[in-house]
Amino acid sequence: MKIVADKNIPYLKGVAELFGEVTYLDGAAFTNESIKDAGTLIVRTVTHFDETILKGAAVKLICSATIGYDHIDTAYCDSHGIAWTNAPGCNSGSVQQYIISVLITMSRKKGFNLKDKTIGIVGVGNVGKKVAKACEILGMKVLLNDPPRQAKEGGKDFIGLQTIMDEADIITFHTPLIKEGEYKTYHLADADFFSSLKKKPVIINSARGGIIDTNAIKTALRKGEISGAVIDCWENEPDIDLEYLNMVDIATPHIAGYSADGKANATRMSLAAIADFYHLSKGPVSLVKEPEPANPFVDTNKYADSDNRIYDAILETYNPIEDYSRLINDPASFKKLRNEYPLRREYFAYNIVNATSGEADVLSRLGFKINL
Fold first, then answer.
1. Which of 1, 119, 132, 162 is least surrounded by CB atoms within 10 angstroms?
2. Could you tell me the residue ranges of all domains in the chain?
3. Active site residues
4. pLDDT tens digit string along 130-183?
């Protein structure tokens, strides 16, 4: 089997070779010529796979090591016998970790208590569900909006977007990017959306850049229609709007889902898809391993003077200000910051030491290991 894989997919080299002959390319180097003899592609979102690249190629299977698949022309693939897979939920724990850390950071920057706030979650799939659970554990009131799920499952757990616009102090987006149809999300947050908000909420986008109309949110920030913004996903990446970058409270280079655990999950799911498609053993999948954190122990006694040791323990696993500083100091390095992202592990990779019983209860429910 001939496989062409994006060279920036982590933990793949040395494992994918157990399935066939592998060529590794930069995302920009995927062309019709470079993939024409490959039966299988393992890809990321940086390359768009449509007729231009795929026509006449030997490709039978495209595995995207990502949650999204809007970079794949699925209609073309379906009509030309090319199977495709993505990795739904692979980095849901990573995005949950990102959202909780930015909520803590914003609460301290803006001087509010998370327990007093209502968060509206727009899109309650694999990621949104985990974000909702973590917010509830931290004592926030949670509002859920997901029209496709509401239509399928009924309305008891969901509310309309207008209610979130009326009641939420914080609004976070976790939808796919859908450009047309009944459940369109492209520019869901447009000028009308921002002008209709009642409580001047903080806006968070760690889903897809196109969910928010860039010009509209800049106007909303200027007019005070929102009280702040945390932006991880941008229109026109990596050539992001620099004025927008400098207007938001926390800006990161599309790395919310970039924990080592999320990346490893995506790689494992892609390799499992290859094994399923070609009826091969899944044994190699288990060889994908994340590195251990430099220090897997978090001692809450280090935060003796803190107003909230739970928050400090969470931020020790991930502090978004580090990513913000790297991006704001060198916006042109957007792509490099993603490709060379430092090791980040999720809560379950850490052991909590010296927590009180109340702290241990909250942290264990978030997923930390507790050393008694």
1. 162
2. 2-86+259-287, 92-251, 297-371
3. 208, 237, 254
4. 999 999 999 999 999 999 999 999 878 999 999 999 999 999 999 999 999 999
